[in-house]
Predict the 3D structure of the following.
Amino acid sequence: MKIRTFAYFVKEAVKSMFRNGLMTLASIGAVAAALLVLGCFIIITLNINYIVSDIESQVEITAYLNDSLENDQINDIGREIIQIKGVKEVVFVSKAQALEEFKERLKEHKNILIGLEEDNPLPDSYRIKALTPEDVGFVAEKVSSIKGVAEVKYAKEVVDKLFTITRWIRIIALGFMAIFALVAVFIISNTIKITVFARRKEINIMKYIGATDWFIRWPFFIEGMLMGLIGASIAIGILMGGYYYLLKVLYTHIRIIKLLPIKYFYDYAGYMALAGAIIGSLGSTISIRKFLKV
Amino acid sequence: MIRAYNVSKVYENGVVALKNVSFKIDKGDFVFVVGPSGAGKTTLIKLIFKEEEPTEGYLVVAGRNLSRLKRRDVPFYRRKIGVVFQDFRLLPQKTVFENVAFAMEVVEASKKEIHRKVPLVLELVGLLDRQKAFPSELSGGEKQRVALARAIVNNPEIIIADEPTGNLDPDTAWDIIDLLKEINLRGTTVVVATHASQIVNTMKQRVIALRKGLVVKDQERGGYRIEN
Ligand SMILES: Nc1ncnc2c1ncn2[C@@H]1O[C@H](COP(=O)(O)OP(=O)(O)OP(=O)(O)O)[C@@H](O)[C@H]1O
Ligand SMILES: [Mg+2]
């Protein structure tokens, strides 16, 4: 396509956008609203995932070791564990440390443990943290097969529950995203349908003087894409601004809640702009199809 | 240039617009298609232009069998034909110049080419001084000439004019016909559908007469006579 022709398409698209001022605003608003909701879901989902996975990875696996192992053997086991895929952190807890922790927990009743120092029944152990909750089961299994490991324990239910929760959040969010995207496509296609309808005579004439389908389609395509992009930009602007403000407020007042830093969303802003453009061009393609059959 | 083989057209509402029509128009011909209102003249033009499809038979135009023409080739086929529509089909929000230039933009002509060619054809149809006017500011004859300018600007092989003298006074009508004849003398095939018996009789050109969808007469140097 020639640059001049492309410039003509863009000019036509922009002219048409101004000509249907109100409908254009409505379409841009619709895309912005849809993407705003979509963006909110992205922010919420990712943050929940972030917080949850923080908890998830705190789910510990404890590997109790056989009694009567040499120091070398214990070190070897530690080295072997750290090499398992999905392991984030490994800490050795000796019998003595375990007993101390036990005493701490029992507090005033710790007297009952007197005398156990000489004949400590608690085993040495490794405490392992996984990278993600999905890794926990796998890591536990691997660790239990290491020679010298007597028993592996972890809070299976907690892990499973967290796992299901995050999965449901993902599914629901995806569902909403799909619905809102469809609504936006529908609104855009209706706006462009109005443009196309208003210009059907012109389209007809274009067809009769030998314009190709794409020549006719491009301006509408660009119009839809522009509306989608502008809507997306508005949504991105509001979301970024809002999120920046939220982080600032949280940071100054409630410092315990840790949310994802804003730079984490830059990529998603790009995806949203892309989504806007796709929604727009899809809407325009749908609406012009039937007018081209001449 | 244009050949029709046993072409029939039945519209969806059951109206039979053309019945078993066959004819042959050669390159460089000037042909009148005549007949009373409803005879099928516009329908025939629509078939040639592939705006409608024949129900039976087929047409071969400029070496192409229109029934076999692929959808994506239709625009390129139409560029070979300039049509002056019965209702002009000008764009009301474009000026005279822009209306003609539009036909060139559509085929992606360069700006330079457009600025060279459009004044030339406007000069030819005698509308150069009205180039900044909008269609609503033009008389019927002037609109007719803009439509003609647009039809010829891309140098088509065939010009088809549907009722080009429709509502014009005799002098203006003659201007239009003279223009068409001039274009024809430059080698373009011209097909004119009309009721204007006076013009047809005076011109002494090939005449294809239709009545109720049938070809009732096809003669060289013919005249217009409404038979009953
Ligand atoms: N789109 C259509 N659908 C149904 N019937 C149609 C359609 N177009 C034309 N007809 C019918 O087909 C017949 C031929 O019409 P056509 O327009 O070809 O006549 P014409 O010779 O051009 O007449 P005129 O001189 O009035 O322009 C008429 O009876 C008309 O009512
Ligand atoms: Mg007619």
Summary: Residues B 11, 13, 15, 17, 35, 37-43 surround adenosine-5'-triphosphate (ligand 1) (CB under 6 Å). The CA atoms of residues 136 and 163 of chain B lie 20 Å apart.
